[in-house]
Amino acid sequence: MQEITRKQKEILDLIVLYIQTKDRPPTIREICEEKKYSSTNSAMTHVVALCKKGYLHYNDSSSCRTKISLTEKTRKEYGFYSSEKYIHVLKNIELFCDHYLELEEYKELPNSKKTVHWALMKVRALMRT
Q: What would you measure as the largest C-alpha separation in the chain, in angstroms?
């Protein structure tokens, strides 16, 4: 990836921090508010430069509110995930699912608790794909 300027690094750090704390990337307007920019064009210029340099994706045609996403390389660089960690976590979830389904008390659970079962079964199905 190409080198980025100090301001671009600040924007990238802001986006990463936003994702880590709010579980979603900021909008262009939110970047402007955080950086005290008076125009969205200032933030957009940095975002476009980061896209061209391979740090971000920006989907301008997206109908959803959040259009900024991190590239795979940026995710790895910032330590967002390690595939080994995810595999380990998913295997533990699958073991929990197996144990949970064997419990006799499951049949007596109210419907709200059966929703947990449904979610666990979804995780299990995802693991097999």
A: 61
By CB atoms closer than 10 A (0-12, 13-18, 19+), residue 84 is exposed
pLDDT, tens digit, for every residue of 71-122? 888 888 887 765 555 566 666 666 666 666 665 555 555 555 555 666 666 6
Residue 27 CB partners (closer than 8 Å, separation 6+): 65, 66, 67, 68
For residues 112 and 119, what is the distance between their CA atoms, to the nearest angstrom?
Answer: 11
User: In Å, how far are 51, 61, 64, 74 from 25, measured between CA atoms?
Assistant: 14, 17, 12, 13
CB atoms under 10 Å from CB of 32, counted, come to: 18
Predicted model pTM: 0.61
Give me the percent of the chain exceeding a pLDDT of 90: 33
Q: At 112, which amino acid appears?
A: S
Third-level CATH fold of 6-77: Arc Repressor Mutant, subunit A (1.10.10)
Domains of the chain, by residue range, sit at 6-77, 83-127
